[in-house]
Amino acid sequence: MAPAPFSSQHKNLRSGRAERGAALGMRIRHRTASFNGRTPTPEHRPLRRPETQPELLPRGVEKSPAEERRVPEKLLVNVTVQRSLGPVQVVAPTDWTVGDLVAAALRRYVEEGRRPPVPADVPSSAFTLHYSQFSLERLNSQEKLINLGSRSFFLCLRPALVSERIEASAVAEASPSTSTASCSKQT
What top-level branch of life does the organism fall under (predicted)? Predict the structure, then answer.
């Protein structure tokens, strides 16, 4: 049995919706008034400032120098090896010297199988450590890491050893070599 097309029951439902829709329309118009610039003026209240307690932190008592500057036990140091793509990361105790860092960085470089490979016959003392590839000044191999003030360094072969190796390879190949691998000549 199909309901009558225009029964009174349908009219009542529709009229209820219309009444609800009218009430919603009023609320919507009231809400959208803020977009048309008709907003009530907000009240400006002063912000409440937090109370401070200066007695909690006494300024007359100073800390001892040992408490003031804490020295970490180990440092994460980045060492970029010349002609290598990225830095080698070495966790180094603060009492290490520059020479210890060079040896550890070379060990780590070889362990990771980085390219270009480091010649096996060259000792770690043949390498110099610099603050950056643009720094001509090499660091003293006896200086402590904690006193250097940096955690990023650049490692390269000593220029004298580089020129000796180039000459030796040129004599062995009987052709002049045009590449230089000196730290001071690299930009």
Answer: Eukaryota
